[in-house]
Each structure stands twice: as C-alpha cells, then as structure tokens.
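Hey, can you fold this one?
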Amino acid sequence: MLELLTLLWHFNTAQPAQSALTVQAPQAEFAAPVNPTSSFTVALTMDLKRFDGESMLLEIPHVLSLRVRQHDPLDRGRQNYPAFKLPDGSVPVLEANIVLHSTEHPDWTNMTIGIPVALLKTPGGQHEIVLSFSGPRWTMYVDGELLDNDFPFGYPQWGATNTWKLNAGQAINAAIYFPGIRPEPKPAQAARTSPVQYWTPPGHNSWVGDVATFFHKGRYHVFYLYDRRHHQSKFGKGAHYFEHLSTADFKTWTEHEAATPLDEQWECIGTGTPFVFQGKFCISYGLHTTRIYPLARTALPLQNEYLKQHGSSGRFAWATTPGVPAGATYSVSADGIANFNKSRLLFHPCENPSVYTDPSGKLRMVANYGARGIWESESVDGGWRCISPDFPPGGDCTFFFRWGRFDYIIGGFKNLWSKPAHAPDSAYEDVVGRGLDFYDGGNVPAITEITGGRFLMAAWIPIRGWGGPLIIRELIQFPDGRIGSKWMPEIAPATGPAKALAARIAATTTLPADQPSFLLTFDVQPAAAQGGKLGLCFLPDNGEQAACELQIRLDDQRAQFSPGSLNGFARGQKSLREGGAPQSAGNYAIEHLIGVDKPFTLRVVVKGDDKLGGSLIDAEIAGQRTLISYRPELSVRKMVFRTEGLELKNLQVAPLKP
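Sure. Predicted structure:
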C-alpha cells in the first residue's frame, strides 16, 4: 500500500545520527557500519533554487549520490519523467543513485530512483528528502511522501572510513543513520471515490500489471501486480508484488495493504489467483526466483524430483528447504477481507499457479510458467496430482471460470477455450480459432462473477511497455456460450454537460475536439442490412503522424483500430485469429460484431493524459462489443467522420471530468 496512496510519513529520529552535515560544515567522515548489509537512512533539507544544468546535492563517493539535472522532455524512457513538466515545458529531475555489489550479479551496480521536480506541490524552495535503504527496498521520500522506489539486489560497499559532502549552495543539512530509520505511517484513508476506470497508481512511473479478481462476502477484490518502470525495476527483472483494492458498490474503493509485499532481495512475484478453501480467503502466486538465481540454486530441483518420485507435489517450508524459495506459494487473509500473511510454503514447482475451487468444491489449479496442465489436490499445501497433462496446451496466467451451461479457460494474452459444463469428458474448443473471442486490447484479463449473476473482466492496457491503466468490462453471455462485452455503468467516467455536434452526417465531415478527454456518442443508421462502413479518424492539431482511425465495417462485421489518414479509409488490420495482436492495444481488428445488423449506438471515450503521454481511445459498439487502443503522442484536436452506405445521427460530445 506504500505506493498506492498519497500517504504522509514521519520518521522516528530518536536514534542518534552516525554523521551530520550543515552549511557551516558541509563535509565530514564517518565510520563504516558494523554489518555491511545494514540498512541506512539519509535525511536532508534542500533548498531547490536552480534547475538549469546539473547540480550534485549530496555525495558519498562510491556509495550514494543525489543530484538535480535537466531531463529531455521527449525522453519518457524507463522513468517517464515527462509526465510532469514545469510551465516552461522543462523537466528537471531529482535523482538518487546507490552503488550495489553482489557476487551473483557483479554487473548489477547502479540503481537510480528519482522524480520530476514538477511532481512536487511547490517545485522550488525547501524540501525534506529522505533516502532509505532497507535491503529489499531503495526508497525516496520528499516532504513525507513516498514518491519512488526500486528493489535492490546487493549491498553498498562501505569503506573503513567514509567521506561525504553536501552542496552548501542548495543543501541546508543532512544526517545519516545506521540502522535505517523505519517510517511510521499515519492513519491511512479508508476509502476513495476517484474513478477506477483507466486508473493508474499515483506517481510518474507507477502502473497496473497483471490483475487477479475475486468476489467474496459482497466485495469485489482487485489484486494487481504493482509495476514501476514497465518491468524495469530490479535491473529489469520486474520485482512485482500484489497490491489490493476492493469495493462493495463500485463507487467507493478501499485501498488495502499490499497482499504480497517484497520482503527479500530474491523475491519476484508472478501472477496467481484468489480463492477460498476450507473457509480461508487466500491468494496463490508464483516466486519467479529464476530471474535472480540459476535454477540449480533454487528449491525447484528438489520439488521437481519429489514430483517425479511421488507423482504429486510436496510441501516445502521456505526456512528449511535447501535452495532459494521458488515456485508456487500463497498468502492467507487473517480477517477474510485483507491483512494477508504469507504461508512461506512451496506447494508446486509451477511459477504462475491459478488455484481455484471448481463448482463441485474440488481444489484445482491450472499450471503456467514452469509447468502445464490441470491439477487437483485435497490441500493447498502439496499433494497436487495432474489430471490433464496436455491441456491447456499453452497460454500464460491461465484460469478457469464457469458461466451457466459453459466452462471457460482463459489464457493470459491471447487464448480462450470453452466447452459445455454438463459434459465433463468433452474436449475444450478453441474459441480464438473461430474468431469469437472477447479480447479487446486488455492484457491478462481476469473474470469474476458478482452479485446478480453479472460477470466482470479486469485487465491492464500496455503503455509504452509492460503495465498501464486498469480497465474493467461487464461481460454479456449469449445462448450459444459466446461472450461479448460492454461498459460497466457503475464505473463509467463522469462527464460534464453534453453538447450537440451535429444532427446528421452522411458524408465526410470534420469536427473539432475542444477537450483532450471526452465522451462521443452517436447513432449509426445503415442504409441496408449488413452493409456500410464508418471511419472515425482522431487527429492532432497538425499533420497525421499520430492519428488513429476507428473503423467499423458492417458488411463483414469487423471493427478495427489503425493509423489515421486525411485521405480515405485506412487499410484492413488482422484479428487475433488471423495473427493480429489485440494485446498490443495498438492496431488490430475484432471479428463477428454483434447487434450491428440494425441501427445501433456507438460510444467512444477519448482520454488524453500527461502521464500516458498520449490518449486512450475506448469504443463500445451496440452495447455488446468493446475495443480499446493506446496512441502515444496523440492529443486529439479534431475528428474526421467518413461514411459509406450509412449515416450518423444525434452526434453529442461531453467532456470527461478530471
């Protein structure tokens, strides 16, 4: 939860500083800590006066440095600094670098955390800066707020005597503490009502990753892999862990403590699933330790050998098992809502375990990443035996759900299978192979039934890499088992008053977009059944390089996103079945539209955002099919409507509320 909320922190500074600097004495020596892996904290008071050029604020040679520098406003890179610019368009940044050493990864040395100065409420003037190294975390606080962190591997290499110095021009004082001072949180806010659709965690470089959802005791829970830097934390290994949101009404959302925080330098957490077994609310997840250590140094060889000898998985405690913990584990909620505690047990060598209780109450798991197939057990803690070694044949973050007369298994980025629920021995059918899937730009969707027999799908939209905003859809099931999607009314973005754009369009027409974020709504009237084409091109002020076209073709029941053009309709794109990539949330097509053989309504949300560095374009077609695209560098200023064999009526636009 540290990264979720804008929390204020205070530090207990009752312990004496190891060394202190002031403007009058800006340089000093201090003894090395007794334990070379000791935590430490550096607390500083800075007066940020200048942002031109580069200025070193504090330095401990070969260990730590803090500086202010100008960043290229066009370079979003791993830190996404241009999400916050000063009024003149410049991007000064405050960065802290620590130098790490380890025998396992001698090339993993410099770990830099930082913020764009414009993120601060008052960029200039005095600020309290705290740099905290705990071992598993390297964190920057400014004025009591946690604004950036990363997850180290290795430790600083202290000298017998260490010299450090302060820039007396912009620094007022500094102190270093061994061991580090632990932050003490003030009481957290219980809930918030800000919109959850298209939401990202606060900050310049924080995103939603793989999502796992569950409905339990009247609450909808969203567990998501918290991401910074698009999978580039911990030297590119991700260092993800599950944060936790929940709601009982989809209007007020509670942000809980992290369900699976990282407590060790070797921890990298992979996707899993929430489940209830024997009355306990749990979440399974994988330890991707092979990203950090060779497989031979982990507990996986022992687990695999046990599985080979016994035909079922074993139960291995982290503390007593040879090798670094790796594979499937789980956490248990102490109160049935939040407050999760790690079991510190390994129950399977799979590193993305999708554990669930099937409709008959049996405990099952779909195995991914390091294993495959469907497994069954009488206990979470080991004893897992494979009951379907060849299915699912692939996919990532794969899991099961039942809806009425049909069972489904969804496979992460691009797989979906279904079969009749009443025929347990029948084979699953490849839904994607028939072009009837519901992938619409989201990644690793999670599907959960809520009150009233409604089903929701949650996922993330990629923004310049791994991780992005959260998106939630409401699903629709048809009698033949096919699933469509629509916007969920309870979480639709709030809008201001709508205004009419045009009563009717039947030829190419250009209209302005007065706001960077808006809801566009109109009715589509085909001239003949199953005929006609619509192209809606979203354009910036000048040129068309970043332009995007939403195209709907009624003759072959397809919709697509493609590069926009000032000169006619865009060329066709591929669907997932045809080798396209909806998971890119870029240019792709969807097939077999529903409800477009008669007049229908098209709704489109355009959300321009500085943090995104572009716009999301989200469309709902006839209330039964959705598709979304992210367009980098696009700020929509005008729209070109093209029609062929149809006309548009009742065009309205409403600004999105901040």
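Residues 300-310 form the longest helix (11 residues). Let me know if you want another pass with a different chain boundary.
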